[in-house]
Amino acid sequence: QTVTLDKIDRGNILNEIEDFIIDEPITMSISSFLPNFTNELNIYLNDTLIKSVEGVVDGDTIEFTDNELTTIYSLLPNVETGTFKFELTSTRQEDDGTTIITITNKTATGTIPSSVVPKVEFTVSEYVEDIATKIGKYVVGKSRLNIDASASVGGAGSSIASYKIVANGETFNTSQAITSLLTESGFNSISVIVKDSRGRESLKGITINVLDYALPKAMSISVNRCNSDGTFNDEGVYFKAYLNYEISPLEDKNLKRVLIQYLNGESWTTLATLTDNYSGVSEECVVSTQQFSVDETYTIRLVVEDYFTLDTTEDDLTPSYTLMNYHASGKA
Fold it and tell me: CA torsion 305→310→311→315, rounded to 10°?
């Protein structure tokens, strides 16, 4: 006995879709059973229609546009993957006016590409105002860094979840940080790591140059009486000073001021100001602006000063003496 079965008009069927990277082409696998069916593919993420493609056939590749990618990323702010639904509607219009429709749905996991990461942006500036205005350079033991990473942004729809700033041997888990006084001269590394709401990290680092610095040193001052032109004269009313001192140049940005003073009662009076050199080795200076009695002792002070502090040392300008020869009569 022969049994005749009714014809089943079956449209095209969407096959399984492999998991994919969101910004890469997705290959469609479609099985066809009868001719003359037309296909429309709709792709959804979280019930949001992302893309609609008409006329798709087996072997076609689907790619998301930039605008579609932006929408996808905005729907996945806190995760790296999403479950996409692919819905294929296969339609054929019959001669009798009826329409045959076959709908198949498949899901696949799409992963945000590894290139989508947060962007690190940060600035570094001098925190100590006087150094910023007077020196304009970072100085060891004097400068503090003001680091601001708040301009960092998430990667395509994500937000910044955490910050890590590493500088001057210190670690800060904030978007802004102020270091303690810089401890090392030379090249100093600064790094900022940000993690976004998807758990992805980015690192950016820079180096800054920190100038070496030492306190000013007034090592010695030695004074001798002389004539106004500096010629040695033990009975002179003027004096010549020999100076030994050091000041850190800070790339010629530091203040260099060397003062020669004498103790005038209970206060110091400046006799000479030198501003030419950062160091002196037996540097000579004749002081002839004021006379000093040959019968008195005077305390002379060397002051070595930079932008930050000063150092001093002293020497005595002693009275002059005359060798006297007294006869037995008591007369010279």
Answer: 60
3-class DSSP assignment, residue 71: helix
Nearest to 17 by CA among 29, 7, 34: 29
Q: What is the pLDDT of residue 34?
A: 79
Mean pLDDT over residues 24-30, rounded? 96
- In this prediction, residue 329 has a pLDDT band, given cuts at 50, 70 and 90, of low
| CB distance 156 to 202 below 8 Å | no
Give me Rg for the CA atoms of the chain: 43
- 274 vs 256: CA distance, rounded Å: 8
The dihedral built from the CA positions of residue 276, 277, 278 and 284, taken in this order, carries a sign that is negative
Contacts of 239 (CB under 8 A, 6+ apart): 223, 224, 225, 226, 286, 287, 292, 300, 317
The pTM (predicted TM-score) of the whole model is 0.81
In the numeric block, the tokens 């303690």 are attached to: 180
| Contacting residues for 155 by C-beta, under 8 A, at least 6 apart | 116, 117, 118, 119, 196, 198, 200, 202
Instruction: Single out the residue of 175, 34, 169, 18 nearest to residue 86, CA to CA.
Output: 18
